[in-house]
Amino acid sequence: MVVLQDSPTDHELDRLFRSLACATRRDIVRRVMAGEDASVSSLAERYDMSFAAVQKHVAVLAEAGLVSKHHHGRERRVRGNPEQLAKARALLARLEQLWTERFAQLDAVLADPPPPQA
Amino acid sequence: MVVLQDSPTDHELDRLFRSLACATRRDIVRRVMAGEDASVSSLAERYDMSFAAVQKHVAVLAEAGLVSKHHHGRERRVRGNPEQLAKARALLARLEQLWTERFAQLDAVLADPPPPQA
DNA sequence: TTATCGTACAACCAAATGGTTGTGCTTCAG
DNA sequence: CTGAAGCACAACCATTTGGTTGTACGATAA
User: Fold this and answer.
1) Domain count, chain B
2) Would residue A3 count as lying in a domain?
3) A15-64 residue pLDDT tens
4) Mapping DSSP to helix (H, G, I), strand (E, B) and coil, where does residue A68 land?
5) Span B101-111, pLDDT tens digits
6) Cβ of B60 near strand D (distance < 7 A)
7) Using CB atoms and an 8 Å cut-off, which of residues 27-86 of chain B contact chain A?
8) B77 falls within a domain
9) Least packed by Cβ within 10 Å: which of A6, A28, B7, B84?
10) Contact A21 B23 (CB under 8 A)
């Protein structure tokens, strides 16, 4: 069953796309979506930047709802949730659909031309 | 026929998602994808900001390849091209796919458990 | 021809971004 | 108990961003 979800707010979409506009963050998302064991420090080991920098990236992703952090002993496990990805993808799909609908409307007009009321 | 397209560079994706991380720009994309007559100034009339600001937004979208500008008399018509939207959408789809594949792999493991080689 | 429209571009500004280092607090290992 | 691992957070910095105003220039309508 497809759930009717209320459309995301502008601000939510801003944070979503903004958080994806960075290769490091996209790579983090890729890792956690693939199910890699992902504490913050295990993620930080893989990038050429400080631990704090990676920590900030994870915070940005969490703020955007793309990942969530969970206590696990003294670690924080980073888990991806694909629902936010789907929201972004749905918006892109709608924009693409606007494009395709143009031709559908054009075809309709050509098939049933209104009388030139000039 | 589906064309094998080389994967976009990190920088290209940065610009793509960055350009979408702004409600004004998303709205511009929506308008031009819907086929609205869109000179830069006719777009600028619709937003509560200066002409130069809208002009910059269009430039950012053009830089990301989401729209292109074309001479038309003394105007510059803004036209959307959905291919870049598709690139962004493809990335999101791949990330979501990673998530779903996790369960497929898990199912495979459960269905055919390897001998505990410890 | 001349005034004006549509655009481009530079300079400037406040705020956000992406990075750093340092400090301190928990939680675990020895 | 003590030391270290893992993390959070603040302060700081350079650069980018999103906005402004002002100036200039080609195309056009009168």
Assistant:
1) 1
2) no
3) 999 999 999 999 999 999 999 879 999 999 999 999 999 999 999 999 99
4) strand
5) 988 766 666 66
6) yes
7) 29-30, 33-35, 80, 82, 85-86
8) yes
9) A6
10) no
Inside any domain, residue B29: yes
Residues of the domain holding B59: 10-111
Are B21 and A26 a contacting pair at CB < 8 A? no
What is the domain-level CATH number for residue B103? Answer: 1.10.10.10
**Measured CA to C1', what is the nucleotide nearest B22?**
D18
The Cα A41–Cα A93 span in angstroms is 35
CA distance B117 to A22: 41
Report the residue of chain B nearest A94, measured CA to CA: B30
For residue B90 the two structure tokens come to: 């493809």
Question: Is B98 within 8 Å of A23 when comparing Cβ atoms?
Answer: no
Q: At what angle do helices A23-33 and B82-111 cross, to 10 degrees?
A: 30
B1 found inside a domain: no
Contacts of A20 in chain B (CB under 8 A): 13, 17, 92
Amino acid at B69: K
pLDDT of residue B117: 43
Q: Tokens standing for B64?
A: 């990301």
CA-closest candidate to residue A40, choices A76, A70, A71: A76
